[in-house]
Description:
Layout: H1 31-39, H2 44-47, E1 63-66, H3 68-74, H4 76-112, H5 119-174, E2 178-181, H6 197-207
Parallel strand pairs: 1-2
Amino acid sequence: MVKSNTQNITIKNYKKTGIIAAVVLVVAVLGIWAVAAMRSPITVDKAIAEVSTDAASGADMRIAVIRMDAVQTDADALKSLRSQRESYEKKLRDELTSEQKALEKEKAEIEKSQDVLSPDALQRRVVDYQKRVANLQRSLSERAQSIEESYQKSLAELQDKHLDPIIEGIIAKKNLSLVIDGRFARTGANIANLDITDDVVKSLNKKVSSVKMSTPKGF
């Protein structure tokens, strides 16, 4: 009886948490420096003696928020990229369905031939079948990852060439001092002109309506 089961063939779901990832390097202080510091401690006042007393004044600050999740959902170019990614993913799912049917058929034929084939011949056929399953799993996994990589690359290019310049232009035009991601901001009611999300989306739509996603490997 053949134990392989094509139902276990799955496509990995790759998720990304963001366009830009930060790497923080922690540098350990040498012990000898710690000893020296212990011998000649300084006060906090001395440590911050050269820090300027200047600070941003509330009356002078111009603040805005951008809801980046809404930009990603509503901007035409980003809708276009998502649609292209979904199209590649559908092709992969359709291919998986087709390959599963072929493997199920081959599995049934192997089971029927157990009493006909010699042990060696049967073993060779089982091994070939298992190789096909393994190769299919690997191919689907690699191509699924390639889809996500192509999408993220196109997303980064869109941000670099179009979205960032739009945001910077709006910041300059409105003479803004600070722009906060609206997903993490808590604001009161009736704050006029605080949210510039619609301005960003409309301006981005004027600049670019669609972006061609780079073709993933294997397609």
